[in-house]
Amino acid sequence: MTHQPRDTFCGRTRREFIWQAGAGFTALPLVSMLAGDGFLDSQAVAADGTSSYTNPLAPKAPHFAPKAKSVIFLFMYGGPSHIDTFDYKPKMYGMDGKTVEVKTFGRGGRKNGGRIVEPKWKFKQYGECGKWVSELFPNVATCVDDIAFLQSMTADSPIHGSAMLMMNSGKIISGAPALGSWVTYGLGSVNENLPGFVVMLDKTGGPISGAKNWSSGYMPASYQGVLMRSVGTPILDLKPPQGMSDAVQRKVLDRLLAKNREHQLKQPDNSDLEARISSYELAYKMQQHAPEAVDFSSEDERTKKLYGLDQPRTQDFARKCILARRLVERGVRFIQVYSGGNHNDHNWDAHGDLEKNHNFHAGNTDRPIAGLLKDLKQRGMLDETLVVWGGEFGRQPTAEYAKGTGRDHNSFGFTMWMAGGGIKGGITVGTTDELGSAAVEKPYHVKNLHATILQQLGLDPNKLSYFYGGLDQKLVGVEHVEPIADVT
Amino acid sequence: MQRFHWIATSCAVAVLFSFGQRAGAEDGNPAGQVDFAREVQPILAKRCYKCHGSGEAEGGLRLHTREAAVADLDSGEVAVVPGKARASAMVHRISAEDENDRMPPEGKPLSDEEIAVIRRWIDQGAQWGKHWAFTKVQRPAEPKVSDAKWVSNPIDTFVFSGLDNANLKPAPPAGKVELLRRAYYDVIGLPPTPEEVDAFLADESPDAFEKVVDRLLDSPHYGEKWARHWLDLVRYAETNGYERDNPKDNVWKYRDYIIQALNDDKPYDDFVIDQLAGDEREQATAESITATGFYRLGLWDDEPVDREQAYYDGLDDVVVTSTQAFLGLTVGCARCHDHKLDPIPQTDYYRMMAFFHNLQHGNTMRNVATEEEKKKHAERVAQHGAELEALRKQIAAVEDRIHETFSNPEKEDAKDKVVRERMIAQRRGKVLSKDDLRDYLALKQQEQRMARTVLAPLDKALAAQEKGDRGPETFVLGRGSAHAKGEKVEPGFPEIISDGNAEVPEQGRNGSSLRRMTLAKWIVSPENPMTARVMVNRIWQFHFGRGLVRTSSDFGYQGTPPTHPELLDWLASEFIARDWSMKSMHKLMMMSSTYQMSTQPNEAALAKDPTNDLLWRFDMRRLTAEEIRDSILVAGGTFNPKMFGPNIFPPLPQEILATASRPGNGWGKSSPEESARRSIYIRIKRSLRHPMLVGFDAPDTDSSCAVRVSTTVPTQALSMINSKFMNEQAGILAKRLLRERPGELDAQAAHAIRLTTSRTPGDDEVKADVAFIQSLQNDEGLSTEEALRMYCLVVLNTNEFIYLQ
Lengths: 488, 805
Known about the structure:
The complex is a heterodimer.
Chain A: H1 14-20, E1 70-76, E2 99-106, E3 109-115, E4 123-126, E5 131-134, E6 147-154, H2 160-169, H3 179-187, E7 197-200, E8 226-227, H4 246-264, H5 271-293, H6 301-307, H7 312-329, E9 334-339, H8 354-378, E10 385-390, E11 394-399, E12 407-410, E13 414-419, E14 427-429, E15 431-432, E16 439-441, E17 444-445, H9 446-456, E18 465-468, E19 471-474
Chain B: H1 2-27, H2 36-47, H3 49-52, H4 66-69, H5 89-94, H6 112-123, H7 154-165, H8 176-188, H9 194-202, H10 208-218, H11 220-233, H12 252-263, H13 268-277, H14 286-291, H15 307-327, H16 346-354, E1 365-367, H17 371-404, H18 408-413, H19 417-431, H20 434-452, E2 460-462, E3 474-477, E4 485-489, H21 515-523, H22 531-544, H23 565-577, H24 582-590, H25 603-608, E5 621-622, H26 625-636, H27 654-657, H28 672-675, H29 691-695, H30 714-722, H31 724-740, H32 745-757, H33 763-778, H34 784-797, H35 799-802, E6 803-804
Antiparallel strand pairs in B: 1-2, 3-4, 5-6
Helix pairs in contact in B: 2-6, 8-10, 8-11, 10-24, 11-12, 13-21, 17-19, 17-20, 22-23, 22-24, 26-31, 31-32, 31-34, 32-33, 32-34, 33-34
């Protein structure tokens, strides 16, 4: 595979290239003219009929040398409470039930004060860095020296629908491509047998807005996230139906190939036909090789234990984390694993009983997440694999209702963390106020997080653009956005 | 593989130079008068305007008007000195050897040809002209051509003269079967039946094809096929998106309006007025009100984080969609600041927005019942009320009797209605006779039943609804923020394509400001330079695979210039002259020799014009997602042609349903017969799309889509071979073959080929297919039907089935 410098196309900027190709066309799937040697390079003409078409998923060289090759985004859907997990607020203990003045904005609207719900778990210091972590994550706590905590995250919306879109696509308005789509668009996929952008959902269902969270928006559908299951057939339609043996299927494909070759004689110059012929062979290869990714028989017992695959409680998330690591080993660029699905307490959305909710979800995921970090590290993969943890927002310091411990949403300040992929470990950047109600020191926006992820992958967040609707669209928006320099 | 690699590269390189070269090559006179609009403006737009356009003025220089370009700069230099290229700073900068001095700073320097064009243009006086798309449509004369025989109608004169100038010959006519399939899919999106193929082959009359075209344009399926094109443009979807992604009730009536309007050949100007302002027509009808569902197709966040901003986002969606769809302009880019590349100032955006500003937000429904229906409905309501009233009186009389028997303290308690009810229930058995009690209970039951009865509501449609006769004040919003109100603006048309302000009536009527009607009338005025050009170009695109202007929703500076500018203008003027009849334009295009050429390659032409910009042949195309699914249903014979009405819900794989936050929620269950209807009727749920349609590039519905991409990826192959749908459909086709050609394997194979390609296969081909089926039976032990099913899977997967010639 030959890698061309990614910032130019035949020595032109992308913008210019599009111009010269006579294609300032509103949905141009033009990515890289020279990239990769994948089978679909033979697609000569794109939908607009003028620009040359390459396999949208062919591997492409980054803008500059990348620190990370893959991303595993552990999405804690529903919004975990930062002050009960990683953002230690010692002064809040003993304040339970006290009324304070604090500006909050959640699904219950804007409020100017409320009843404090003190953090419900004890915190302890861990690692050389001495990071305070609550009892909810005793295993992740043992990895803090590899983690950079972003304790001053902010987002534009405290409402699930728009907040999910923001965390996944950078915009609160539906219709923009997902982060994983941008990554696949920018870098392609190095494994022809697997998708470049994989999504694993919780067994209780997808997050709200379903497929919009991994949609490729105005980009071609080839960049959308592909759902993968960690048990059974991993990808939709990957398995031949019952009654179609491999021998029968091979004959079907051979006969199809022969008929397509015959048809091709009439239009030898049309490479779309050739591309489609090749796509069947590639599909056949995928069918042979992709199931191997979900076959854990080669995993040793120690590894399985490390992730918690042996415990009923953690089995499900463990399986997904192991699969995520296996996908990284196989060259998948972007993997998103959801903890929590459906509505209410099926995810981290603790409006009612905070303790019950967070004990449940943290208990299901703590060990697998720690296992993932340790396993990546022991295999020497953590350096090139960026792990991101967090939800679409955090939670408020005050109670949502007159009774109970439930907390409403909080997008004014919350915690996310990153590990591996060139991210500095054992550090914490930014702070929230004493109650964790809002970011005060070094506030970072979701866009800064996205910019950091792209940067670690070797993509310039302010350059990676896709021409649509008369504009060079970017994941981070039209205005310049800085990656978070403190952690890289 | 290597060979195709080479083609891919050569195309790319050829494309790079084709536009630049043609300008010089065509006029054959490199020293001739430079055409600013076609030759200079595109260079300025693509290489200069980002920093020196209407929006930006790096170093004080703007190149968007002559006045600005010839002005003294802060540095004392003058960028453009008319008549003196050598004295012009611009020429020095673009041709500078030193990279630090050279403009533009990014990317490759301008080519020698481009620099030469700029020099000549300045030497010739640096005349400024309007961008080609912003000038009034002028009907050009038809060029004289050297081969009159090839010319079937005026379209061909423009195409032929272009080919002739480049020394190219048009491809020979397409074969009859190829032409027939092309016409069927283009017009109705469905294949011809074998009988229709036979009839066409047998018809040797000179107007055989014309008869087919007429028949297809009369088919109700025409509206279904072309409605789909329109629905892409207006970002049609049937749910609101976001967390709940709730259904838009009755939204399908808009889809049905489009289908019916197309089938009726509603003139395009009326079609536009209906959708933009059908409710503001003097004689608004159910139909014209339903058409304004156009405004209600977009996203709608019922729980926005910032209500006011969301309101403006909703208006933005309308401005963006309507300016792209009707005008081919990307006005949306001027929401936050002046358009960087096109001459669209930010005020233009807000002046345009002002036309829509009086619209209510959200999914407003309007009554579309006829007077007769309203009258009947009122009668029904009154009658129902009267009957209920009478019943309640009877019941009250009986209860009063029981009440009479209460003691005084009991009567005091019974002042509480709930208590009274309970006491009556306890006492009634004692007070009433057996018969009376039975009658009383029957009355009570009847009353409850009637009270629960929901009368069929009056017919309603999602439609535009304004807030009153007068529109609100509109302000420019700083950086597009709802909270940064600036200068006040009045409704007005974009400056670049209009003279002055819109004349909106002081006072509207019937709760509407008539602003939208003002806009709609301006859009469809024959004076508007964009409307006819944009629409004929779309019609061309959907017949030929690409528009004469490739960027069919962007005719601005960033768009590609037309490959055939005179043809575009001729078609636009013809469209208006034909009273905006779309069917008439379809026929005109389809009856041209240009349309009827074959797709055959030709080495000389491939070398000279590999991307077929000059139209030396017809371009092959893949069927659209909907055409693929519909054709599979047609092949199996279970296709259900039922038109119109609420959506269908064909079964989705469990894996897809599981992606919803409430798995399975919002996806109904249709019978197999209903599920076999055309794809246009499948529910379009924003967060849960039909995997096969999306897999074959049905567009995202959150914004307007003018050109669908056509991707080829292996997951398509997986679903075409392994999916439940495909395997079921292959089985259905196999059964059809067994039923219609019982007992003869070769006849079955031949029939399958005809059903999927319209072509009668040769003996060798059939023999090879039969050998394949037999080997599945003999070597793999499949039953006759199973083997045939596998064969059907093969034919449904062939390129010949999926690609049109």
